[in-house]
């Protein structure tokens, strides 16, 4: 298999899908949804730099994402009480509700696309993406049924 070609196709296809169904899910712009999802699951606040490093974004991109999420009321920035040079990012209650809302039109639109693919192909797509996600973020089985490959 030509993995370089596969990588180029994955980037092209994922951007195309993201601009369609996924990009409109929750009214979020590219990158906001995974950041909000991650922040909403954290018990403690993180710095923008920690978030960027953990999620694989550049610092400037993370700043733009946090600016947008803050404007929407999903996160807040506060100065660290112990070190005033540090800024911490917290998820608001509204941000948590939004991250857990499955009633979005974007979800419905993507579900319709997946149903057109058929069950077998949709499961294969999810399986491949789960493996790629777990390898990228060094996570264990996220959605069930996928084991990390060494």
UniProtKB/TrEMBL annotation:
Keywords: DNA-binding, Transcription, Transcription regulation
Keyword Transcription: yes
Presence of the UniProt keyword Transcription in the record: yes
PROSITE patterns documented for this protein: HTH_MARR_2
Domain of life per record: Bacteria
Database matches in Pfam families: MarR_2
Molecular function terms from GO: DNA binding; DNA-binding transcription factor activity
Domain HTH marR-type: 1-134
Protein name: MarR family transcriptional regulator
Organism this protein belongs to: Thermophilibacter provencensis
